[in-house]
Amino acid sequence: MLSVSPQERAARLEGLVSPDVVEDTDAVAHHYAHAAWSCLTEPGDGVAGALIAEMGVVDALETALGSGGRTTPALEAGRKRWQARVETIEDAFDRAKRAGARLIVPGSPEWPQRVDDLGVHAPRALWARGDLEALSRDRALALVGARAATGYGEHVTGELATHLARRGVTIVSGGAYGIDGMAHRGCLATGGTTVAALAGGVDRAYPAGHADLLGRIAQGPGVVIAEVPCGTPPTKWRFLQRNRLIAALSDATVVVEAGWRSGSLNTAGHASALGRPLGAVPGPVTSAASAGCHRLLREYDARCVTSADDACELLGTLGDERPTPTDRTDDRTRVLDALSARSPRSPDDLARRAGIAPDEVRGLLAMLELDGRVRRGSDGWRRVTSSS
Amino acid sequence: MLSVSPQERAARLEGLVSPDVVEDTDAVAHHYAHAAWSCLTEPGDGVAGALIAEMGVVDALETALGSGGRTTPALEAGRKRWQARVETIEDAFDRAKRAGARLIVPGSPEWPQRVDDLGVHAPRALWARGDLEALSRDRALALVGARAATGYGEHVTGELATHLARRGVTIVSGGAYGIDGMAHRGCLATGGTTVAALAGGVDRAYPAGHADLLGRIAQGPGVVIAEVPCGTPPTKWRFLQRNRLIAALSDATVVVEAGWRSGSLNTAGHASALGRPLGAVPGPVTSAASAGCHRLLREYDARCVTSADDACELLGTLGDERPTPTDRTDDRTRVLDALSARSPRSPDDLARRAGIAPDEVRGLLAMLELDGRVRRGSDGWRRVTSSS
After folding, report:
1. Single residue among A43, A73, A95 that ends a domain in this structure
2. ipTM, two decimals
3. Are residues B225 and B254 in the same domain?
């Protein structure tokens, strides 16, 4: 167990949360536990999410750091990986204070409720530099794309970001070189609100060449956020999970320019999985840099976005008959269940096994492929295991 | 009424239809009536279409040119406009003969049954120069777009037409400058079959600058057609109706490059109305020349087409498994015969030896290269022997 007294916990939180939190014992326990969980877990740890959903965040933390009791193999495996990181918690608070970061947890007034659609995979906490209110504004649009952008892609991104910002749309992106950077810059240029979601801690600029840009965003009215604590370096996994966070923070996602295998297609896949509108900006069919966008138009039913008007339309379709995330998730799970990691299976076979219409199965497979959960072979589909 | 005897009608048809038609009194009446109707009506005259559907084409013509009987306001109005054109019929036959055109009517073996989906708005007859069989081949794709095309649009059109023609797809277009012209040329360059549907009579090249191109198409294996008789100038209305004909002659329609108000969107609209698959090639969103294509993607649910593969998908199957037409094979054989395994030869040299146009030789060489039968060197082309 953590040998940190309630008084010590309050002291750790000081400066990171609003003063009234520090004076409320329950609020201190709640905030501290969320922050601790964000240190103990990798983003998207569904076992932790399920445990917290079941027990509440404070009791779940005690269970995670204890031993024995009513346990399961998943909980035991979780305990091993979580307890290995107990030492990192104190350091995270120190670093956050030095970086001038703030802590937001589920239930805080600043918490962006959009991310709750991620269910057990939602972030445990968000560490933020800048204007926290930027996270909960109406009409947030993710504008993402490849790092290796062309002049065309950067031009279009700048135009879109500028015009959308003028209409009060918050631009969410990943702070990377190329399209992301132009999205933030175009927004800043008109004094708009922009959110940069990082794969590593907010105390370290990644990429280093964007230290200035991220600093300007944090000066407001924008915000730089991460679900991993300060001091955490970005990794491949954290980039992929950061993409899910960008999609979840936004009412709609537009991919401006992306090659056939760009990571921004992963963001698009998350937006689809969340039932959020997805758009793609076309480009010359002779440009490999737009091949991913055309793929989204062809295979993922993305809307063709050519202007800020078109992008706004995506925000307008909110609340139309979009599928609830739960339904989708359940159907995806059923398809995953029907798949084998070893024997390739046809969509028709999977449709029979899952009890879902073949057409629907094909759509779900496409989304799962985008998420890297399944793999298409010449002989059929397989589930991707964590080891493969 | 028409004061033309059955013998005179047969004489008019001579040279325009197959000899056995001329010897059959009923067939003469049927063909003559259809030809007459194509002179009396503007394309798409639904009143005429309904009358013909009800009475048969011969009796409908008598009713149209007579008076009294059981009549309606629509029939009376029709009679007025049809009877005003009776004098044009004889002229149409003369001009068609001078132009070397042929007459095809519903029920003829060469009649393209696809156009019957237009119902009462179907053409009454088709006047054609070239290979009539080109009209009824499997897998016809309309490749259309703006006259004011950009280098990008022309490049993509040429690529699509070339690759589709190599797979045995018939390319249908409107013979205009810009995208249409490139579609025909790309197809011709590989010896493919192309259909040019004109808004005016096939005896007059429109646009005049495409007289050569239309002449080459008519030399076969392609065909130049119109539903209006020879001598008819194109008008705005006839262009719009010609667009419906392009859509109706094709299993699917792809718009390659088109501005916001391009006439090719009208072709696309007809394809949709006929329930035929519709595709659009995206381009830079900064290019007004692609705005119409993006509109089709956004508003008309067109499929995003980026390659010949994508276009073939609209037709239902990929062209790979399709056997090469026999006439093609003969030309290929002639080129192979003209090649040497040892001495490299230029396309012009081969054209002379094989007695085939240089452009066609280049197309055939490209196909043979694809099959691994010939090899291109810096100094010319050689035949690949089984030992090489």
Report:
1. A95
2. 0.75
3. yes
